[in-house]
Design goal:
10 helices; mainly alpha
Length: 236
C-alpha cells in the first residue's frame, strides 16, 4: 500500500470506535441510497426542465447519463480484469479498526479498485457542471463528502480507489462532451421520444434515473436471480 493511502486511511480510521453514534451515522450515510443517489436525482430532473435553453440542457442531461453509464461499466470491468485488490476492511496486516455497525464480511471477495460509486457520481457532477457551475459544484461536493469519504471511513475503499473512480467519471464526461457531435446521435431518439410520446417517455425516464441513482442495485439483483433460476431449470 502506498504512503498516500496509508496517511489518508489512517487519518480517518483514528476516529473509528470512538463513538457508536458517529460510526453508525457514517455507516448509514455510506449505505443509504436516499442520501447518495436520491440527492443527485432531483438535480438531474432540475437540469432537464431548466430554461430558457431547455433543448440544449436536455441534450446535456442525456449525454451525462450516457457518460455515467460508461464510467460505471468501465469501473466494473476494471474490477474484474485488474489484479484483485482487497478492501481495507479485508486487508490482512493493515490493522484497520472496524467502525461500529460495519459488518466485517461486507462485500468480501469484491475488488475495490476503482470505485464504481465515485465513477458514477463524479460523472454526474461533471455533467451538471456543464448545465450550471453552481449546481455542479454542489454535486462535486456531494460526490466527495456524502458518497466517497464515508466509504473510506468504513473501510470499503482506499483513497486511490476513490480518486481513480472520480478521474474515470470526469474523463468519461469530458470525452463524450468533446465528441458530443458524434455521441448526440445516440441520444437524439430519446429526445424525439420525449416530444412525440411524453406519457411513455417520462415513466421510463423516471425508472432509468431511479435505477441509476443506486447503481442499478435492484436490476442487478433481479437479473442475477433470473440467471440462477434459468441455470437451475436447465440443469434438471
Amino acid at each position: 500500500m502506498n504512503g498516500f493511502d496509508t496517511a489518508v486511511l489512517g487519518f480517518f480510521n483514528q476516529f473509528a470506535q470512538r463513538s457508536w453514534a458517529v460510526d453508525s451515522l457514517i455507516m448509514t450515510i455510506s449505505d443509504s441510497d436516499a442520501l447518495k443517489g436520491y440527492l443527485s436525482l432531483p438535480l438531474i430532473w432540475w437540469a432537464w426542465f431548466r430554461g430558457p435553453h431547455r433543448e440544449d440542457h436536455r441534450q446535456t442531461v442525456l449525454l451525462t447519463i450516457l457518460a455515467a453509464f460508461a464510467a460505471m461499466a468501465v469501473a466494473r470491468a476494471l474490477q474484474l480484469v485488474l489484479p484483485y485488490r482487497a478492501r481495507p476492511v479485508h486487508t490482512a496486516g493493515l490493522d484497520f479498526t472496524l467502525p461500529y455497525t460495519m459488518p466485517a464480511d461486507f462485500l468480501a471477495g469484491w475488488s475495490s479498485f476503482p470505485s464504481d460509486h465515485a465513477s458514477l457520481f463524479f460523472a454526474l457532477a461533471a455533467g451538471l457542471w456543464l448545465v450550471s457551475p453552481l449546481v455542479g459544484a454542489f454535486a462535486f461536493l456531494h460526490a466527495a463528502v456524502i458518497v466517497s469519504i464515508p466509504r473510506i471511513y468504513v473501510g470499503l475503499h482506499f483513497p486511490t480507489d476513490i480518486l481513480s473512480g472520480a478521474c474515470l467519471g470526469v474523463t468519461a464526461m469530458a470525452v463524450i462532451w468533446k465528441w458530443r457531435s458524434v455521441f448526440v446521435k445516440l441520444v437524439e431518439p430519446a429526445l424525439a421520444w420525449s416530444k412525440s410520446i411524453p406519457h411513455l417517455f417520462y415513466p421510463a425516464f423516471f425508472i432509468l434515473t431511479s435505477e441509476l441513482a443506486h447503481l442499478f442495485k435492484d436490476s442487478r439483483w433481479l437479473a442475477e436471480s433470473l440467471w440462477h433460476m434459468a441455470k437451475l431449470s436447465l440443469a434438471r
